[in-house]
Specification:
This is Conserved lipoprotein/antigen. The structure is a single chain. With about 140 residues, the protein is mainly beta. It has one helix and ten strands, in the order H-E-E-E-E-E-E-E-E-E-E. The chain has a domain of about 100 residues. Strands 1, 2, 3, 4, 5, 6, 7, 8, 9 and 10 form a ten-stranded antiparallel beta sheet that branches. The chain is globular and about 40 Å long.
């Protein structure tokens, strides 16, 4: 009886580890998101959403560029705490807290849309920042 129990536990342990190795999957193209800053839009190549209790971190990559957003969830609508835009066609920006503005909504239970105004810098015009509209729409 004891040998049979150990065999069952060993098989369960082995089976529970299946599928936990290998590369991190990327989103399918039909679920692709989009990041827009001003007039520039880029399709996402991958999106990673991580939830820890009532916080959701969204990390969306467009290749050389990326957008990261930190949301507080659990209410009627998510609340944006911070947004960081990096190298979206050379533009870098931030929003959240006392900088810029940002709002979030959830469509269909799994598509997050974050919109607002970010304080954006352009490497072609160092030392000068502009307020620019932005939008991040990604599946999670």
């Amino acid at each position: 009886m004891r040998i049979r129990l150990m065999a069952v536990l060993a098989a369960a342990t082995l089976a529970s580890g299946c599928g936990l190795s290998g590369p991190t999957p990327s989103e399918r193209s039909e679920q692709s998101g989009k990041i827009t800053v001003g007039e520039v839009s880029q399709q996402t190549q991958s999106v990673k959403c991580t939830q820890d209790q009532w916080a959701l971190t969204i990390d969306a990559s467009t290749g050389p560029g990326r957008a990261r957003a930190y949301l507080q969830i659990g209410g009627v609508e998510p609340v944006v705490r911070t947004v960081n835009l990096e190298n979206i066609d050379g533009l870098n920006g931030i929003a959240g807290g006392d900088v810029g503005s940002a709002e979030a909504s959830v469509n269909g239970g799994n598509t997050y849309k974050i919109t607002g105004t970010a304080v954006v810098s352009d490497p072609n015009r160092p030392g000068i920042t502009n307020d620019m509209p932005f939008a991040i729409e990604v599946p999670c």
